[in-house]
Amino acid sequence: MRVRISTIAVTLLLLLTATLVAAENSTRANGYTIHHNAIPTALLSPEVASNYRIVRSKYRGLLNISVIRDVPGTTGQPVTAKVSAYALNLIGRRHGIDLREIREADAIYYIGDFPIVDGETLNFMLEVTPEGSSRPIDATLSQDFYID
Q: Signal peptide position in this chain (predicted)?
Protein backbone atom coordinates (compact mmCIF):
# COMPACT_ATOMS: atom_id res chain seq x y z
CA MET A 1 0.00 0.00 0.00
CA ARG A 2 2.87 2.39 0.83
CA VAL A 3 4.38 1.87 -2.62
CA ARG A 4 1.01 2.60 -4.24
CA ILE A 5 0.57 5.83 -2.26
CA SER A 6 4.11 6.95 -3.13
CA THR A 7 3.44 6.17 -6.79
CA ILE A 8 0.28 8.24 -6.66
CA ALA A 9 2.13 11.11 -4.98
CA VAL A 10 4.82 11.05 -7.64
CA THR A 11 2.15 10.99 -10.35
CA LEU A 12 0.38 13.97 -8.78
CA LEU A 13 3.59 15.93 -8.47
CA LEU A 14 4.53 15.15 -12.06
CA LEU A 15 1.12 16.22 -13.29
CA LEU A 16 1.23 19.40 -11.26
CA THR A 17 4.71 20.37 -12.34
CA ALA A 18 5.36 18.78 -15.72
CA THR A 19 2.10 19.50 -17.51
CA LEU A 20 2.52 23.23 -17.41
CA VAL A 21 6.23 23.75 -16.91
CA ALA A 22 5.98 27.18 -18.47
CA ALA A 23 3.40 28.16 -15.87
CA GLU A 24 5.42 26.89 -12.90
CA ASN A 25 6.85 29.67 -10.79
CA SER A 26 9.03 29.95 -7.75
CA THR A 27 9.88 32.64 -5.27
CA ARG A 28 13.18 32.75 -3.37
CA ALA A 29 13.48 34.67 -0.11
CA ASN A 30 14.96 34.35 3.37
CA GLY A 31 16.77 31.07 2.57
CA TYR A 32 13.68 29.34 1.13
CA THR A 33 12.30 28.59 -2.31
CA ILE A 34 8.52 28.55 -2.64
CA HIS A 35 7.36 26.52 -5.68
CA HIS A 36 3.83 27.36 -6.82
CA ASN A 37 1.66 26.46 -9.80
CA ALA A 38 -2.00 26.20 -10.80
CA ILE A 39 -3.69 23.82 -13.24
CA PRO A 40 -7.24 22.77 -14.16
CA THR A 41 -8.25 19.71 -12.12
CA ALA A 42 -9.48 18.04 -15.33
CA LEU A 43 -5.79 17.33 -16.10
CA LEU A 44 -5.53 14.96 -13.13
CA SER A 45 -6.09 11.25 -13.65
CA PRO A 46 -9.29 9.90 -12.04
CA GLU A 47 -7.22 7.76 -9.66
CA VAL A 48 -5.07 10.65 -8.43
CA ALA A 49 -8.09 12.93 -8.04
CA SER A 50 -9.96 10.26 -6.07
CA ASN A 51 -7.04 9.50 -3.77
CA TYR A 52 -6.57 13.16 -2.91
CA ARG A 53 -10.29 13.97 -2.76
CA ILE A 54 -10.07 16.44 -5.64
CA VAL A 55 -13.05 17.03 -7.91
CA ARG A 56 -12.00 16.65 -11.55
CA SER A 57 -13.67 19.36 -13.60
CA LYS A 58 -12.84 21.78 -16.36
CA TYR A 59 -14.43 24.40 -14.09
CA ARG A 60 -12.09 23.79 -11.11
CA GLY A 61 -8.44 24.70 -10.70
CA LEU A 62 -5.82 23.30 -8.32
CA LEU A 63 -3.14 25.35 -6.60
CA ASN A 64 0.00 23.45 -5.55
CA ILE A 65 2.63 24.96 -3.23
CA SER A 66 5.80 23.48 -1.77
CA VAL A 67 8.31 25.10 0.56
CA ILE A 68 11.98 24.14 0.26
CA ARG A 69 14.73 25.26 2.64
CA ASP A 70 17.78 26.14 0.55
CA VAL A 71 20.68 23.83 1.45
CA PRO A 72 23.93 24.50 -0.44
CA GLY A 73 25.04 21.63 -2.66
CA THR A 74 21.60 19.96 -2.63
CA THR A 75 18.16 20.43 -4.15
CA GLY A 76 17.01 21.65 -0.75
CA GLN A 77 14.93 20.26 2.10
CA PRO A 78 11.10 20.26 2.15
CA VAL A 79 9.69 21.99 5.23
CA THR A 80 6.27 22.53 6.74
CA ALA A 81 4.84 26.02 6.70
CA LYS A 82 1.80 28.09 7.49
CA VAL A 83 0.41 28.81 4.02
CA SER A 84 -2.53 31.01 3.04
CA ALA A 85 -3.69 31.84 -0.46
CA TYR A 86 -6.37 33.61 -2.43
CA ALA A 87 -6.92 34.46 -6.08
CA LEU A 88 -8.12 37.68 -7.69
CA ASN A 89 -9.62 37.83 -11.15
CA LEU A 90 -9.09 40.88 -13.35
CA ILE A 91 -12.19 42.67 -12.06
CA GLY A 92 -11.08 42.20 -8.45
CA ARG A 93 -13.32 39.29 -7.41
CA ARG A 94 -11.57 37.39 -4.64
CA HIS A 95 -11.59 33.58 -4.39
CA GLY A 96 -10.43 32.26 -1.01
CA ILE A 97 -8.49 29.00 -1.32
CA ASP A 98 -8.51 26.50 1.53
CA LEU A 99 -5.20 24.65 1.49
CA ARG A 100 -4.40 21.29 3.01
CA GLU A 101 -1.04 19.74 3.70
CA ILE A 102 -0.01 16.55 1.91
CA ARG A 103 2.97 14.48 3.10
CA GLU A 104 4.34 11.69 0.95
CA ALA A 105 7.72 10.14 1.75
CA ASP A 106 10.05 13.17 1.93
CA ALA A 107 7.72 15.53 0.07
CA ILE A 108 5.52 18.15 1.75
CA TYR A 109 3.12 20.23 -0.30
CA TYR A 110 -0.08 22.21 0.04
CA ILE A 111 -3.01 21.93 -2.33
CA GLY A 112 -6.34 23.69 -2.69
CA ASP A 113 -8.99 23.98 -5.36
CA PHE A 114 -10.98 26.94 -6.66
CA PRO A 115 -13.51 27.77 -9.41
CA ILE A 116 -12.39 28.81 -12.90
CA VAL A 117 -14.15 30.15 -15.99
CA ASP A 118 -13.09 30.19 -19.63
CA GLY A 119 -10.61 32.89 -20.55
CA GLU A 120 -10.07 33.92 -16.94
CA THR A 121 -6.77 35.22 -15.63
CA LEU A 122 -6.27 34.66 -11.92
CA ASN A 123 -3.63 36.38 -9.82
CA PHE A 124 -2.74 34.28 -6.79
CA MET A 125 -1.54 35.93 -3.60
CA LEU A 126 0.38 33.64 -1.23
CA GLU A 127 1.67 34.17 2.27
CA VAL A 128 4.09 31.49 3.44
CA THR A 129 5.70 31.29 6.87
CA PRO A 130 8.11 28.34 7.04
CA GLU A 131 8.12 26.47 10.36
CA GLY A 132 10.62 28.09 12.71
CA SER A 133 10.60 31.37 10.79
CA SER A 134 8.94 34.51 12.09
CA ARG A 135 8.98 36.33 8.76
CA PRO A 136 6.33 35.48 6.16
CA ILE A 137 7.26 35.28 2.50
CA ASP A 138 4.83 36.87 0.04
CA ALA A 139 4.62 35.26 -3.39
CA THR A 140 2.44 35.79 -6.44
CA LEU A 141 1.45 33.73 -9.44
CA SER A 142 -0.62 34.67 -12.47
CA GLN A 143 -2.34 31.97 -14.54
CA ASP A 144 -4.70 32.02 -17.52
CA PHE A 145 -7.36 29.30 -17.71
CA TYR A 146 -9.10 28.09 -20.85
CA ILE A 147 -11.93 25.58 -21.04
CA ASP A 148 -12.25 23.34 -24.09
A: 1-22
